[in-house]
Each structure stands twice: as C-alpha cells, then as structure tokens.
Amino acid sequence: MVAFAVKIFTLTYVNKKYVIYGACVCISSLGIYLSVFMSHIFAEAYLSQRTIVVFYGILSYWIIIALRLNMRKSDKVFCGILEALTVICIVFFICRTNSLSIDLLKSNASDRLIAEIIDEKINVYEQENGIKIENIAFVDDENKTYSYRGIFCAYNLNLRVWAIDFARGNAFYYYTGRDLTNVQCPQEIYDLVFKGREWNCYSDEQIYFDGNTVYIGIY
Questions:
Q1: In angstroms, rounded to a whole number, what is the distance separating the alpha carbons of residues 26 and 31?
Q2: Over the stretch 80-124, which tens digit does the pLDDT of each residue have?
C-alpha cells in the first residue's frame, strides 16, 4: 500500500507538473506524519491508535488527491463516488470519535465514583478508630477487568484506571487529594482477605483496613 500510494502520488505531481501544490502537500503530510511519533520518543514504544490511524490516513490522503487530479472531466460518476465515499468516511469517523469520547467520559466518571467511595470509607474508619491512613495497597482479584460494562475498550483506550498498575496511586490522589504511600499487600492479609476472590463489580468487601493501611481489591 505504501509503494502504491507513493507511486500514484509521484506520477501525478511529476506528470501534471503540480510542483508547488505537490510540495505543499508533501511538507504538510510529512509534518503531520512525523508528529505522531513524538509519543513514542518520549513515552511509549508500542504501536497505538494515534500512530496506526494517522499512518493509513496520510496514505489515503495522498491517493485521493492523486486520483482526483488524474481524473478527466468525463469521469464525473467516478469522481462523485470518490467524493461521496470521502464524505461518508469523514462522517463515520466523526460519529465514532464522538462515541469513543462519550465512553471515555463514562469510564472516567466510574473511576472517580469508586475513588470517592473509598475516600468516604477511609474518612469513616479514621473517625471511628482515631487512626490516620497513610498507606494504600491495591490487590488484583483472580481475573482483573480492564473496562466497565458497555464501554468499548481496545489497546489502552478507555481502560479502567484501577486496572493499570502504575496509574492507581496517582489516580486516587487526583480524585481524592489523599497522598498515600503505595505498599505491597502482605501474604497473610492476601490469604485472609483476597485469595481466590473474584468480583464482577465494586463491593464494600474489596476494602480492608489494617492499622494505618487500606487494602483495595481490584475486580
């Protein structure tokens, strides 16, 4: 596909002599394409949606422009089909992006709700026992759930923040303002409270207190 796109693009702009126009398209496309790799340089090494979508999007962009410039005036039907398909694709991606954004908002709201419930449980524990919670430990159940029901999830898109090991502590601090120290769950507490447990949704059973530490079961 890459070779096909480059071939059509090159032949179009060389044969038609759209030098300036072709140069502008090349420069803008190259800039957009290179920008998607910034996250790989600074944060992540694996392919993600933001890279894959733009990669094929730029190639499609080149092909559509090249085909459009190569069309004769008599190719009105084909031209109309091409333009109609382009509009359909744009509308589809707008709707899809909107749907995914709504799912993201729902997922974030659910994350916040769980954090607020845990925070309230900590407040009650501190008031009843006169002990300030300083540590927090997260313990996965037997089969951790990566997304909420009814939420589209793929790669790292719309993941539950509680399913991401390195993000849990920071998310709890962000939602509640509690700067707790992340600790490991001792084996004896794991065996007593969490071993063999399998939850499908939030439950108060997932919260366990011991001294100045709160243990959170992650379903």
A1: 8
A2: 777 787 788 778 888 888 888 899 899 999 999 999 999 999 999
What pLDDT sits at residue 2?
47
Residue 45 above 70 pLDDT? no
Instruction: State the amino acid at position 130 in one-letter form.
Output: G
Which of 63, 82, 101 is the last residue in one of the domains? 101
Domain range for 209 is 110-218
Q: Where are the beta strands (DSSP E) in the chain?
A: 135-140, 181-182, 207-210, 213-218
Looking at the structure of the chain, the number of domains it has is: 2
Q: What is the number of other CB atoms lying within 10 angstroms of the CB of residue 159?
A: 19
In this structure, the answer to whether residues 15 and 96 fall within a common structural domain is: yes
DSSP state of 157: B
**Residues 120, 95 within the same domain:** no
Last residue of one domain, picked from the residues 101, 123, 145: 101
Residue closest to 164 by CA, chosen among 180, 143, 181, 146: 146
DSSP 165: G
Inter-residue contact 163 to 145 (CB < 8 Å): yes
E-assigned strand segments in 14-129? none
- Looking at residue 12, what is its pLDDT? 52
Work out whether strand 213-218 and strand 135-140 pair parallel, antiparallel, or are unpaired: parallel
* 3-state secondary structure (DSSP) of residue 207: strand
Q: Is the pTM of this model over 0.70?
A: no
- Answer yes or no: do 123 and 187 share one domain: yes
